[in-house]
Automatic annotation (TrEMBL):
This is Tryptophan 2,3-dioxygenase family protein. It comes from Pedobacter jeongneungensis.
Length: 321
């Protein structure tokens, strides 16, 4: 058969490529000749993926609980993939930055709009039974979510609000000792660190600290201000960062708050979360006032941060039950 000019050109390019590497092109062509065709299920390791659900109890709804959390972690991995592209871009432009933050917002939109699977997608009676077999594991222990926070803002913004001013010039190690989520994993009775928190710190502390140092000048807040100082038009980027701020610090915590109210709130005593966390004060955005980009919000907006969302959702859920 006669080769078209296009095929000959591709073969010449391949020859140049392998010659430059000191490799024999014919051997690679043999490999291509004998290799099987790729299938969808092999490419995404479908059989492995579908085998990763291992319920601890016989309650059917536990499998829903497992799969949704696995889906969540895959979305977090997508978000971190974009975070890395932004932080490590050699010649970062506003356009690239904006496009990647827009992708992250799409991931969080998918997560927050799908959380009804957790709020209404399981039988309350089943959940309250199988959850006891999960102790002390907790969604609190999502390391990827904490990494997204570190990539998104200056590390001081993740310090508990009561300590931010005092620790504004402290080292990252000192700030980490007062990071907000540690205050959300204390034992309800004694105020001591829960086993959930101790496990989490042991596994991730070194990784979090290194990432915080690596992103000290390449987190989203810092990069935004660098671009703005250089005269770039950051209007569109600011809009996407405001959306990200709301998704991560209001909508996503609120989704969990809705679930906690649905499954854990009882009269007159609330049920503790699986990690023993004081979720009533930890989850509502209006208590934490975690804001990545205070320079993008008015004083009034920050003062009212999350209040309307939490109060309206709580009222809706109480009426529903």
């Amino acid at each position: 058969m006669d080769f078209t000019p296009e095929i000959k050109d591709k073969l010449n390019q391949l020859q140049e490529k392998y010659t430059a590497m000191g490799q024999d092109m014919a051997s690679y062509l043999d490999g291509l000749l004998y290799a099987d065709f790729l299938t969808y299920w092999d490419y995404i390791h479908l059989d492995t993926l579908l085998s990763l659900q291992s319920p601890k109890t016989p309650f059917p709804d536990e499998e829903i609980f497992i799969m949704y959390h696995q889906i969540t972690e895959l979305y977090f991995k997508l978000a971190l993939h974009e975070c890395t592209q932004i932080a490590e871009h050699e010649n970062l432009t506003v356009e690239f930055f904006t496009a990647r933050v827009k992708r992250i917002n799409a991931y969080f939109n998918a997560l927050t709009t799908s959380f009804e699977v957790m709020v209404d997608g399981m039988e309350k009676e089943q959940f309250l039974k199988f959850r006891m077999s999960l102790l002390p594991a907790s969604g609190f222990q999502s390391g990827q979510y904490r990494m997204i926070e570190i990539c998104a803002t200056d590390f001081i913004r993740l310090v508990d609000k009561s300590k931010r001013k005092e620790l504004s010039t402290a080292t990252i190690e000192e700030q980490f000792e007062n990071i907000y989520w540690k205050f959300g994993a204390t034992e309800l009775a004694s105020g001591k660190q829960t086993l959930t928190l101790k496990q989490f710190i042991k596994k991730y502390a070194a990784q979090f600290l290194q990432l915080a140092k690596d992103r000290s000048l390449t987190n989203f807040s810092s990069l935004y201000q660098q671009l703005q100082a250089n005269g770039a038009d950051v209007t569109a980027l600011a809009e996407e960062l405001r959306k990200l701020d709301l998704y991560v610090n209001v909508e996503w915590p609120l989704s969990h708050y809705k679930s906690a109210v649905r499954y854990l709130e009882k009269d007159p005593v609330d049920v503790a979360a699986t990690g023993g966390t004081n979720w009533q004060k930890y989850l509502p955005p209006r208590f934490q006032k975690r804001i990545f980009y205070p320079f993008l919000w008015t004083d009034e907006q920050m003062e009212e941060w999350g209040k309307g969302w939490v109060l309206s959702v709580l009222k809706t859920l109480k009426n529903k039950d």
